[in-house]
Every structure is written in structure tokens, then in C-alpha cells.
Amino acid sequence: MKQQCAMALLQDAASRIDPPAVMRWRDEGRPVLGTTCSFVPAEILYAAGVLPIRLRGLAARGSSIGDAYFGPFICSFPKCLLELAGSGSFRFLDGVVITPGCDAMRRLHECWRKAGEDIPGIVPGFFHYFDVPHKTEGHGFSWFIDEMKVLVEKMSSHFNVKITDEDLSSAISLYDEGRRLYETLEGFLLEDGPRLSGTEVLASAIAGSVLPREDYNQLMRQAVEEAMSRPPADECLIRLVVAGSVDDTLDLFRLIESRGKALVVGETLCFGSRFASNSIQASEDPLRGIAGHYLVSSTCPRMFGGYAERLHRLLDLVRSRRADGVILQNIRFCDMHGSENGLMARDLKRMGIPALRIEREYGPLADTGRINLRVDAFLEQIAAKRLTIKRVESTASAASRAAAEV
Amino acid sequence: MRFVAGCDVGSLTTKAVIMEDGRIRASAIIKSRPIPADSASAVIEDVLRAAALKLDKIAFTVGTGYGRDKMPFADKAVSEIQCHARAARWFVPGARTVIDIGGQDAKEILMDPDGSILQFVTNDKCAAGTGRFLEVMAKVLGVSLTELGAMSRRARAPVVLASTCTVWAQADVIQYIHSGKDPADIGAGIDSAMAKRVATLAGSVKPAPEICLTGGVAKNQGVAMVLERLLGMKVAPFRKADPQLAGAIGAALLAREAVSGSRQAGI
């Protein structure tokens, strides 16, 4: 019973902007900071005794505030974040760290401040812009370390704490334990008969971006046990990888898997494996280790000159997870993923890997009918391809049997 | 049992077809109701009545359209992409490209010479390039959809609509009416704007001849004429059935294949 609760609690945490564990942390008088990007090193915040939570727009039910400050032709994700900020849903936060993950997210910093002039009390006391370079080597790497040092300094001063290397190393160990547990859970998707769904695995990743790490690790240990105790399914589902824009809700994965035809066996999403997996390499200087993890191992298309490597990683994922196809999704007006998905679709097609591009709005899946149609048609295409291969194999095998008899 | 059925619950209309040995025995089209299951039940009653059959005589039913998963009587749900592709080959055996323009969406499908789907695209969440665009414009002009389609042939100097956005185009049309333009020229401009939008979408699948136009808008001669010119290839005419029934016909053809076990690709 206890084990069953773990998976449900992870899904619950993934479905709310203010999970009970976060509120408990705050009620104990400890600060909570919202972050907007997978490039913000959670370990630094945690080492300061601050709970870092990824800001999500999933509770937004409109965009009147977002539209007023951002304008119409921009990704709806930062607009939903501003909508929630403007309507007071983030008032429980003690601070926010905003990065230029993309230009729309960079503008969130300006728009939030501007909205704060009109709507009193929505800009928290600690409001920090954390710059992230677009290159990983040389100067870019040093710059990122400098940015982290500034963050440490500002947080130490604002929250009156001292962040030592020991604190950082301890936070790294704690976060890495969660990453290893996530990779164990994700590993169940490698099995032919899956024990859990891609939606459940994504939920565990999203939950990791909001829950206090000790709570998360505990739940993940239980979730792994729960997954092990489940019998493997005997269905032969179509195996898909999902890539592209930020997705902090479970709706899209649920939609893909809800008909019982497909299983999402991997993803490269900002709220998914991009943040949740890959342990930090041990280093004498903890900040260097953190920089190596966040800056260098990211698959975010905001980084310059890394397309070939990102494509290679996607192909590795497709091969290692034995995926039948890839869904490349992006939020409307997402320049980075919109253009990268075009290149990816072209290259996957050249390699004979079925790929479906979906452009969608962020938020409750109002567009469900159209996305459903595309996903269904894509699955039918893959099913037809499988059938053709099966027929060819069966004909070839019959021919070789006949030849042997002759 | 030799009867199979296809049911297509669309956003504006719901269609059903009963086929007997590969020929259409009966068909029905009704306005869609708020609940897809109600639309499906109502249209299947109509088509059974028209065919003088009872439901238990239908060997297999395939459902398609936005309400495809909500049909209590359907044996299988298949996407409209698959159904329109299948119907297009039945309408035009050499078809490689399908352009389906329905009430609220538009789809372009590219097939290989065997009829397997190579690629497909659908419109974004926008009324431009869909039947809804024509419906709004026809209302502004005060003509029926059929009349709107016939206007292009009478036009002498078709107007140009600056935008294919339904709201802005509507403002343009009102402006042209007020300035005393010939309604036929305005109608031709509307058809042309519609066709341009669809041709742009079609361009992304690199259409190959022959092109089969399906869906309710296929009845609009003006749109078909401009599409031919823009795409530089003939839009194959077909006379076997109402193109608005294409989704339901494709569903019935797939139902037939499911019964005979002849193909079953994708279902």
C-alpha cells in the first residue's frame, strides 16, 4: 500500500504548483525559491537551505495579464508564468531566479518587474537574473562559474547564510542520489513488457524539480520498489521518444499513451531527463562539477553549435530504447525548438526513422482533437510499417525454407 | 455478411455510409450534435433506415472523425488521415495526394504509389483555410455555400483579400461590398484566398499527381480551380460519391478490408 502511494504522490506533486511538501517546507520557516530553467543549479540553492522549485504554468486558466505585458506573438509558457505571478499564485515564494533560457524567458524578468509596478506585491524580495552563456568551452565555462559565484554571494547576503564547499558537496550527493533513482525507474522502460508508463516516469522527473530532495529520494526509492513489484505487461506497444519544447504537464504524454497503443520510452525535455538524469562528475571544486553538469551535458538547443551532438544523443536514445518513432513537439512561437525540430525531422526522415512534428499551445490541451488526430495517424503509419516489415520477413523466411527443402 | 459501415463524426457534420460488396448501398449526412456519441447514433439510425437494414446485419463498422472514440457501435476507430487516404484511392485509383478540407480543419496527405501514407500535415488551430472560413464569408455575402462556389466562374476582376485570417478577411469583404464591387468578384476573391492558404499547407508535403480533393469544400468549384492553378497540377474529378462522405467511405472501405483480411494496414 505504501509503495502504491509513492507513484501517486509523485504524480500529485507533478500536477500542482504548490505541493503539500513545498508548503510544509515553507511553514517551517525555510525559504522557497522559484526557478525558470533547467540551467539553474538546484544544488547551490539547496546548499543554502533554500528549496528550489521549478516554476510551472499549469494552473493558469487565462492569459490576460500575460498578454498585456508580453504581447501576442510569443511562447505561451512564460505568459502563463506571468499570469500566475500577476494573479498572486506565486506569493508563497521568497524569491525567483530567472535565466535567459530563451528570449521569451529572458523577457519574463522584465515583464514580471514591470507588472510588479502595476500589481503590488508580486515581485518577491529576492529577484535574481542568472545569466547563462551560449557556449560551453573556455570563456563560457568561466563565465558560468562567475554567475554561480554571484548567485552564491547574493543568496548568502539576502538569506544571511554561509554556503561552504561541504554544503555544496552534500547537496550534490543528495541530488545525484535522486538522479540515479530516476535513471533506475526510467530503466524499466527498456523492458519489452513495460511495468510502468512514460507518463509515470515523466511525473517522477517533474516531481524532482519541485519536491524537497530528501522527500523526493524517499518517494523514488518506494517508486522503484513499486515498479519492481508490478508484473511486466504483455502488450506489444509502439515505442516513442518525445523531444522538443518545455512540457511541465502530463497531458501530452497521457494523450499519447491513453489509447493503449503507444508507450513513451524516452524524452529529452526540459522538465524531464534533461534535468532529472546524469550525475555530476566529481570535482575538487564543487562549482566546476556543477558547471560541467548543467552547462556541458545539456541538450537544450539554446546552446550554440551543438546541433550535431544533440541529434547524435537523440539517435542514441532512439536506438537504446528501441523506439519506433519520434514525436517532435514545440509550443507555438518557440523559435529554438521550432527550428531545431525542422532540422531533426529532416535528418530522422533521411535515416528512415518516423518522426511527427506537432506545434501546440502551452496549457490545458484545448487542442486535444487535432493533436489526437496527428498522433493516431502517426501510430497507424508506424503500425503499417511494422506490418510490412513482418510480411517481408515472413515471405523471406518462407522462401528460405522452400529453398532448403529443394 | 456482406454489409460494412463507416461513420465519420466531424466538427460540423456527421456522415455515415453502408457498403455492400464495395458499392455504396446508403449514405446519410446530419449536422453534428454537441455530444459525438449522439451524432454517431443518430446518423447510423438514418443510414440503416435508408439501407433498409438492422445494425446486426453490419459485419464491421469503422469510426473516424473527432468523435471516433465515442461511437458505441463501432468495432474500430481509425484516424481521418487513414480514411481519407483510403477513400481517395477509391475515388481516384492513381491518387498520390489528398487535400481534405473539412468544416474546421484541412489535411494534406502524400501517399506512395501503393497508397501507403508517406507524410501528412494538418492546419493549425485557426479557421483560415477551412470550411468555416467559407461559411463565414458566404454569410457576409448573403449567399449559400453552393452559390459561393459558382461565383468564381462569373467573376471578371476577382478582388484580393489582404489576409486569410477569417476576422480580417471578413472586414475586407464588408469593405468591398460597401464600395460596390461585383459580388462575383468578391466571391472569387474569397475562393482564391482560401485556395492560397490550402496550397501553402499542401506545399509542405510536396504534392504529387494526381490530387484528390475531399471534404465538403471539394464541392466548391472556385476553390478547386484556383488550387489547380496554384499547385500546377490537375485536381482529379470524381463522380462516384459526394466528396463530403470521403471520411465515412474510407472508414467503410477499411471495415471491408478488416472483414476480408485483405489489407488491414494501420487498423
Written description of the protein model:
The complex is a heterodimer of chains A (406) and B (267). Chain A has helices at 2-14, 20-27, 42-47, 64-70, 76-86, 103-118, 139-159, 165-187, 198-208, 213-229, 251-257, 273-276, 286-296, 307-320, 335-350, 368-405; strands at 32-35, 51-54, 95-98, 126-129, 238-244, 262-267, 325-331, 355-360. Chain A is α/β, with parallel strands linked by helices and 406 residues long. Chain A has a domain at 12-164: Rossmann fold (3-Layer(aba) Sandwich). In chain A, helix 1 packs across helix 9, helix 1 (2-14) packs across helix 10 (213-229) and helix 8 packs parallel to helix 10 (213-229). Chain B has 2 domains: 1-92 and 244-267, 2-Layer Sandwich (Nucleotidyltransferase, domain 5), CATH 3.30.420.40; 94-237, ATPase, nucleotide binding domain (Nucleotidyltransferase, domain 5, 2-Layer Sandwich). Chain B is built from 8 helices and 9 strands. At the A-B interface, helix 16 of A face helix 2 and strand 8 of B.
Topology record:
The complex is a heterodimer of chains A (406) and B (267).
Chain A: H1 2-14, H2 20-27, E1 32-35, H3 42-47, E2 51-54, H4 64-70, H5 76-86, E3 95-98, H6 103-118, E4 126-129, H7 139-159, H8 165-187, H9 198-208, H10 213-229, E5 238-244, H11 251-257, E6 262-267, H12 273-276, H13 286-296, H14 307-320, E7 325-331, H15 335-350, E8 355-360, H16 368-405
Parallel strand pairs in A: 1-2, 1-3, 3-4, 5-6, 5-7, 7-8
Chain B: E1 3-9, E2 13-20, E3 23-31, H1 36-51, E4 58-65, E5 76-77, H2 80-91, E6 97-101, E7 106-111, E8 117-122, H3 131-141, H4 145-154, H5 166-178, H6 183-203, E9 211-214, H7 221-231, H8 246-260
Parallel strand pairs in B: 1-4, 4-5, 6-9
Antiparallel strand pairs in B: 1-2, 2-3, 6-7, 7-8
Helix pairs in contact in B: 2-8, 3-5, 3-6, 4-6, 6-7
